[in-house]
Design brief:
Helix content: under 10%
Radius of gyration: 13 Å
Shape: globular
Strand content: over 45%
Order of helices and strands: EEEEEEEEEEE
Number of strands: 11
Length: about 110
């Protein structure tokens, strides 16, 4: 069974870059038709899809985040990563990685604060 686990810093300072990693077990990130997403939920707000990387390596990013977001894979480690540049306190949220937006990791809390 595929499982996902997010990891990264819990606290990031404003203007810095947030880097999160999702480690996948029980399946390969290159499996056909698998899309690996990053989704976040700020406190008191709804879910926001940030972007995804496909099994093929193609990436898709939300237009609202396109200028400061990148998603990549490390197939040797069966991981995919999120980088969010120039963070502000508004980027404080629970961050999730997901497979086909159906199977989710447990999430990791990120707080942006000086």
């Amino acid at each position: 069974q595929v499982q996902l686990q997010e990891s990264g810093p819990g606290l990031v300072k404003p203007s810095q870059t947030l880097s999160l990693t999702c480690t996948v077990s029980g399946g390969s990130i290159t499996t056909n038709r698998y899309y690996w997403s990053w989704i976040r939920q700020p406190p008191g707000k709804g879910l926001e899809w940030m972007g995804a990387v496909a099994y093929s390596g193609n990436t898709y990013v939300s237009p609202s985040l396109k200028l400061r977001t990148s998603i990549s894979t490390d197939t040797s480690k069966n991981q995919f990563t999120l980088q969010l540049n120039s963070v502000t306190p508004e980027d404080t949220a629970m961050y999730y990685c997901a497979l086909n937006v159906l199977l989710w990791g447990q999430g990791t809390q990120v707080t942006v604060s000086s």
